[in-house]
Design a protein that fits this description.
Layout: H1 2-9, E1 12-15, H2 17-22, E2 34-37, H3 39-48, H4 54-72, E3 81-82, E4 94-97, H5 115-129, E5 135-138, H6 142-150, E6 154-156, E7 174-176, H7 179-185, E8 190-194, E9 197-203, E10 215-218, E11 224-232, E12 235-240, H8 259-268, E13 275-280, H9 286-300, E14 306-311, H10 327-331, H11 336-347, H12 353-366, E15 368-371, E16 384-389, H13 396-403, E17 411-416, H14 432-440, E18 446-451, H15 458-466
Parallel strand pairs: 1-2, 1-5, 2-4, 5-6, 7-10, 13-17, 13-18, 14-15, 14-16, 16-17
Antiparallel strand pairs: 3-4, 8-9, 9-12, 10-11, 11-12
């Protein structure tokens, strides 16, 4: 009786191929519900398994998982193989493979030969066969979900790999405080000076909601910009920021044009922070600030031996081709952003004239290496300043592969705009960039800032507003 009751409560999810290609671990993510895999899904997995792309890797991994599950429970294929052992307790449902022809009459306008329509026919047949228990199609394909709903079937997107349901909740790295903040948390206020910076120790109810390296700012008669350097229980220490908006603190000739840029430069120029993420729309200055800080730390302060810049060449992680040329030359078409920013950074050296500028440009170029993501596996970077541009196009797994390349003394900076994702099946909520921003918040050696204001030109700003 108990098992029947469980079946009433549990649902039957029919998996489309693209879900397995997107996340092979989805087999273990449906908790107490059962999973149904049509034979056509296995056929499609087979066609995708060749090659070195991320999709092919995922197809092979999904097949390995299926093999593991089916080998352990071959005698239970008819009734469904329990997933509990294979998933190490994460899923308590069963895996059901299609063992007999299932089909239901679809509208004549839907061609039967198409795999998508065959899967829709199976969902319809399962729904008719077991009326009490909902059969739900899970697919990343929007059109497939629309067709399913048009046929009166239940369909859902696969959300399990989403870091955040709503990207508005994504950590911005900064927070405005008002006068009442000091009244609430400043009862035992201590302040002191060290190395030209002011420090404040505060205690109160707001402190547990602060993150390490979060930027706090206050406007008004006594403006303040500070970084949270320590949080313990209800006690926190704030350190005032260096003012990079002032010309005397310029970084390779660049000064911050707004508050968020000042926050970003404070994180980029701090050698104690190993991992920085900068989010922002086009024109907020992400690449320019990062390169200026990189050049200052590499050429002036000699903290790093060189700058390595990589960006996702969409199609992501595909081969960069057999055109003649070195890795750098093949990456050149994707590196227009780097060249544009280097032109700006070289302009600031006015004293040397044309010769001086040319010499500076050659020196700067010799210290910047451009690498393709394809050759990153197995490498370790020592004392490098690694910039990952267009990071919103990376999956969480690719992001992990890249960030774990960092050896001792390496700083990693991820730049991106989660509103511009070009990779199929990645959304703002499941992008690798969203993933690292969320997972790294509050670590003492990482910082994040969402840049708000575009600083390109009045034309670009107006275009962004009205177009």
């Amino acid at each position: 009786m108990a098992s029947r009751r469980k079946n009433k409560a549990s649902k039957l999810f029919v998996l489309d191929t693209n879900v397995l290609l997107h996340d092979p671990t989805c087999l273990y993510r449906f908790e107490e519900h059962d999973i149904f895999i049509p034979i056509i899904t296995l056929e499609e997995l087979d066609t995708h398994k060749k090659g070195m792309s991320e999709v092919a890797r995922n197809a092979r991994q999904a097949s390995r998982f299926l093999d593991e599950i089916v080998s352990a429970g071959a005698d239970q294929i008819e009734t469904g193989i329990p997933l509990e052992t294979a998933s190490r307790g994460a899923a308590t449902g069963r895996l059901i493979l299609q063992t007999q022809a299932l089909g239901s009459a679809l509208p004549a306008s839907l061609p039967v030969g198409k795999a998508d329509n065959q899967i829709l026919g199976i969902v319809k047949a399962l729904k008719e066969h077991d009326g009490d228990r909902p059969a739900i199609l899970v697919s990343k394909d929007i059109n497939m979900r629309i067709k399913a709903r048009a046929l009166g079937l239940d369909a859902e997107d696969y959300f399990n790999d989403k870091v955040l349901e709503d990207t508005d909740l994504l950590y911005t790295g900064s927070r405005e405080i008002d006068g009442a903040f000091w009244e609430r948390n400043g009862k035992d206020l201590k302040s002191w000076q060290e190395h030209g910076r002011s420090y404040y120790q505060i205690k109160g109810g707001d402190v547990p909601n602060l993150y390490l390296n979060q930027m706090l700012w206050q406007q008004g008669e006594q403006p303040l910009q500070a970084r949270v350097t320590a949080v313990e229980g209800k006690t926190a220490v704030l350190e005032t920021l260096r003012d990079y908006t002032h010309q005397k603190n310029n970084v390779w000739g660049i000064t911050a044009r707004n508050r968020e840029q000042n926050f970003a430069l404070n994180l980029l120029m701090n050698p104690d922070i190993d991992f920085v993420t900068l989010l922002g729309q086009a024109g907020t200055g992400k690449t320019l600030l990062t390169l200026a800080a990189g050049l200052a730390l590499t050429l002036e302060q000699k903290l790093y031996s060189e700058i390595i810049m990589t960006r996702v060449t969409v199609p992501v992680g595909e081969d960069i081709g057999f055109l003649p040329g070195t890795e750098e030359e093949k990456m050149a078409p994707w590196m227009g952003a780097l060249e544009d920013n280097l032109d700006v950074l070289n302009k600031s050296e006015d004293d040397g004239g044309d010769w001086g500028r040319a010499a500076t440009r050659d020196l700067v170029r010799s210290r910047i290496k451009v690498k393709s993501l394809n050759f990153m596996r197995g490498r370790t970077f020592l004392n490098k300043y690694l910039i990952i541009d267009e990071a919103q196009n990376l999956t969480p797994k690719q992001m992990k592969t890249l960030v774990t390349r960092a050896g001792p003394g390496t700083k990693v900076v991820c730049l991106g705009n989660i509103a511009q994702i070009d990779t199929p099946y990645l959304t703002e909520g499941s992008s690798g960039l969203t993933y690292v921003v969320d997972r790294f918040k509050g670590w003492s050696h990482s910082g994040h800032i969402t840049l708000q204001r575009g600083e390109r030109s009045r034309l670009a700003d107006h275009a962004a507003e009205v177009l």
